[in-house]
Amino acid sequence: MSRIKRLPEAEFEIMKVIWGSNVPQISTLQIIAALGDDKRKPQTVLTLLVRLIERGFLSSEKIGKERLYSPVVDEQDYLRTETESFIEKYHQNSLLGLVNTLYRGKDLSEAEIEELRKLLNERT
Prior knowledge:
Layout: H1 9-20, E1 26-27, H2 28-35, H3 42-54, E2 58-63, E3 66-71, H4 75-91, H5 95-104, H6 110-123
Antiparallel strand pairs: 1-3, 2-3
Helix pairs in contact: 1-3
């Protein structure tokens, strides 16, 4: 798979709505409704949807008067790419460096630490 490009925040918000819909296709009106009335103007949402199609994140088809959108990029693939990029940029490709930062900053709960232990035990 080719490298997935990073999304600007506004486009990522739209993708979260689409990924979270758990349907194969979602309409423009459903996206706008899920974003909320005060979030963005409809024309702005339409512009962002076109950009997402151009970037290869969405496909669309017109059925009757409605345009429906489908994700092309899987949410987990995008999140994995974003996480790997973050770890590379800020922690020199060290997952341990990331975990250490969270641990020392007291950002990990006991439950999360226990979950990490379980994950590590599964890999060994």
